[in-house]
Every structure is written in structure tokens, then in C-alpha cells.
């Protein structure tokens, strides 16, 4: 309650002290699939621009996102966001599957559980970030239950002739660098970047190496244009595992050796490639867009203490997305109608054995195909100059084909195993949205919205075991949710405040259930997320800017039982229990102080309340992930030729972790993943225009 009070006071301070005035220029976003002014949307929208990114002491994109209301970050190692995930509005371990992440409007979230490759998008390559809370299912479909995060990279036509180089040295043997160049005229532009990262990491056996290449081109003699995009990335990551804690036997590796490695031989390696094209064409007042995209990923991994187990997983995605926006006037009422279709094809191929050298003849080879087709329409109705109504509907069908080839003659055969019978299935879902935005004055507006969203099961959630531990494909029921939200916004030239209340009721939530022996992935009993989100900033003076963000999230199961197991009990009632990995409170405070001589001091405080551990759906484990508070500072000096910056992250050297998991077998045992203490970094940027 103290955190909530502080946040409310910080948010209300600008409204009490600032003088009314202009509400500023329009903020145009791309996450709506056509450019749209945020003041026309019945939703909470946050836009982070280049200045916000440069002010922040965040080292990675998930760290930057976690400073926003309603967004939590889960990290395993604290090494360039490898394995990190963001969770919007309290979905816990499945946050990555319920928050849709886009790059330039193209889906980055994958058809597996490996998560977004955040390190493939360094902060220096980003122009702005658009966060849409609780909306996006009509326009994008699967996986947008909590909302959409759209990352906009630098436009080839924005910067003319330019060359940049960036270098960063930091604690734990960290070295990072990027080269960027652009060449643009009125009708043609091209830019390219090369990025590399190398760090030993906070933990032993935690080295991380990352390389990225990207190139964008745009040609357009007028309003119409063609975009071409290409990129590749490579990551080589060592995996230290967890630190075990079991009070009943006096075991606490988190205290005695937090930087140790439980799995000194584990590793993963990943290669990705992408290509895409967008055609934008204007025919009178109608605007037509066509997206063509392709992406592949090859991920190799080895887990020494789990069998051992070696895997070679391949994933390929292709997509076609035509759409048109038509301005209409019917009965004296203006409409902006969007009509579109999406066709997505996923191809998953996983080879599994005991050692890498045996993957040429794997014990199991799992293939899963998903083909999805959808049509959607969304209408923006201008009821009056100050009243905007949004109506939307989407229909989507997916077809699954899955097969498993089992070879007991493989040199990697461990002496047990089975083949999952092949399956085919077709599923259908729909999404809808109804929203109203009402401007009360140039500074004030309120909105209300309701909608339905859905999520289909992905490739790695399909392949599990039955109660007898025989391999099988489990085509789970689609997850769906009903969301209601209302909020208000106040914006003047020197300050802004936004807040909203939301409730989402989720049915058939798709989730890994290791708590229940022999079940694997399952549809959970119904749950509910309720919350309050407040964001505010205040330009106190020309040289001083303050910001505050507070999120309250109450995530609970509405009813139902879990089968459980012998160790923890069977038929466990989880009605009213809290969803694991969801902090109830999160507070962010920020300061940006211009010290003169083009020198800026930035400070950011993140405070997160305690939360239940993964696998603790019954809420019976006596321990929780403790609350923590992190303070980051950054001092930057601009020059005509570039910029120098010194940053200190976790200034108070807080001992903390954001992920812990309860044991499936021992009642009081759990594993934690310690994150780095205090770290320093020095960054130098050079520019030639």
C-alpha cells in the first residue's frame, strides 16, 4: 500500500502543479497495421522514442520495457537478455506466449518456447517502441491476449548520409560494438548495421557471444513505396543452471555460492535469418499494404545432467498479409475501414538424442506443421469530432500435422522411449473488439473497451507424455480471454498522466503442468487478471524531467483442481490461489537532469514486490521470490562528434532474482537463478553526417 500511495502521489503531482496548455503534437504509431494517431485509439498506448532510449540506463530491450507500467521482466542470467522474457499484465511463466512482440509490424514471437531473441535487436538499432496494452487480437490474432509490443527500427529514409560506431566496455568481461551506416535521397534509402557482443557473465559457465547483421532498403518516388529487409543473427551461450535451496537439509547454494554453475557442461547455440518485403500503394484515398515475410531459426543445445540430452531444433516461418484501409462516409458519418487477411505457415523439426554426434540418427525426430489463415476487419467510426468508436472482428483457422519418428537402433538410444502417434487437427477461433474514446477537452480524454482474444498451442507445448509417460501429441484446446478496460488520459505541453483499470478472464489457459506427474502441458482451470496501471511524466523545468509508473496486478485462479502427484497431494484445489511469477506491485521512478554543457544525468528506480515461484500453483511452498529494488544511474555527455556515457546498474548491489522454480519431487526444495550485482559500463559513440 505504501508503494501504491507513492505512485499515486507521483502521478497526480503534474496535474496539480503544471499549467494547462496545448496537448502537443500527434503521436503516430505503426502497430495498428496502418499509421494511426494514438489520440484516436480506445486503448492504453505508450511510445518510447529515441530520447527515452538514450536517457535510460537500460542495457537491453527487456530492461527498458520493464520500466513501464504493467510490464515485468523475467531473466535467468542477466547476460544481454539471453533467455529473458517480458510479461504484460500478469501471465507469469506464459507471459512470452501472451504478449505479441513485433519488429516493424512483423511477428517476432515464435511457434515454440524458446522466446524472443532480444539480443538480435540492440538498443542502438531502435527508433522507437510502441506498447499497446490489452488490444491487438483483431489485427494480429494468436498470442496478443495481453497486448502488443512493436519495435520500430531506424528508417532508411530518415537520416540521409550517416556513419556511426558504438563501443561499450562493462563489468563481467563485457565488450559490445556496433557499426551503422545510411545513405538516402528523396526517393531511395539504404541502411545497414553490424553488431557484436561478448561477455563472461555474472555466473560461471555463462559466457555469451552474439553477432547480428541487418540491412533495410526503401524506394518510393511519392507516398507509395517498397521496403526490403534482411537480417541474420548468431548466439553462442553457456548455461550455468540454477542454485539449489532446501531448508530441511541446510542447503542454500544461493547464499554460499551464488555465482556457481550447477550445469558446467550445458550450452546452446542459435542461428537465425530473415527477409521481408512491404509494398505500400495509394489509389486515391485508399491505402493498400502487402507484407511478405520469411524467417528461419536453427537452435542446437546440450544438457548434460538431464540424461544427457542433445537437440537440434529447426523452425521456419513464412507469411503473407494483404490489407487495405478505406475512408468512407455513410449517412454523414465518417468511417476508416480496415480489411485484411493473414496466412502464416510454421514448420518445426526437432532431432533428439544423447550426444551431438548422434543427432545424424536421432532417437526421436519430431515434426509439427501449423498452417493458419485469418480474415479481419476493423472500423473506426467518427461519431463526432471528439467521439471515436472502434469495432473489430477476426476469424482464424489453424491446421496441425504432427509426427514422431522413433529409432531404438540409434546410437544415442538410452534404453527407454516411445513414439508418439501421428495426429492431425483443425481449430478455429475468433476475436472481437468494441471501444470508445471521448475527448473532453484538448487535454482530457477517457476510453472504454471490451474484447475477446485467443491463443493456439505451439509446437513444443504439443509434444509431451501421458500419465504412463508415453510420448504423445496433445493438441490442447485453444485458450481464450474476455477483457474489459477503462481509462483516462491528461496531457499538456509540460506533463502527462494516464491511467486505466482492467480485468481479463482467461479460459483454457495453455500451461506446462510439471506439478501433476505424467500430465505435461494442459489447459488450466479458469483464471482472472485484474489491475491498475498509472504512468506520468512532468517537465518540472527546462533542465529537469520526472517520471513515475505504477502497476497493481491481482492474478488468481477462479476455480478448479490440479491432478497433483504423490509428493504434494492429488486433486489439489487452487481456487483463489495466486498465479505464480506475478508480482502484485511494481513501481518505477525516473529522473533526467540536464547539468548543462550538454551533460545529462539519468536515474531510475525499479521496485518489485514478492511473488510466488514457478510450479507453486497451490501456493503451499513456504518461500517466495523476495521483493527487490534496483537503482540505475547514467551520466552522458554529448559532443559534436558523438557521445560518451558512464552507467552504474544496480547501484546498491542488491542481491536478487526474478525467476525461481519449485521442485517437482521434494516439498521444500526449489531452484533460483541469481542475477548480477553492481556493474559499471562505459560507452563511446562517434557520428559522421
Q: Could you name the CATH class? A: Mainly Beta
CATH architecture annotation:
Beta Barrel
Oligomer classification: single chain
Class based on secondary structure composition and strand pairing: mainly beta
Summarize the main sheet: 22 strands, antiparallel, barrel
What would the average pLDDT be, to the nearest integer?
A: 91
Q: Can you say what the CATH homologous superfamily is?
A: TonB-dependent receptor, beta-barrel domain
User: How many β-strand runs?
Assistant: 41
Total number of helices: 7
Sheet-strand content, in percent, reads: over 45%
Sequence stretches where pLDDT stays below 50 over 5 or more residues = 1-23
| First-to-last CA distance | 51 Å
CATH topology: Maltoporin, Chain A
Number of domains: 1
Report the radius of gyration as a whole number of Å.
25 Å
Shape: globular
User: Which range best describes the helical content: under 10%, 10-25%, 25-40%, 40-55%, 55-70% or over 70%?
Assistant: under 10%
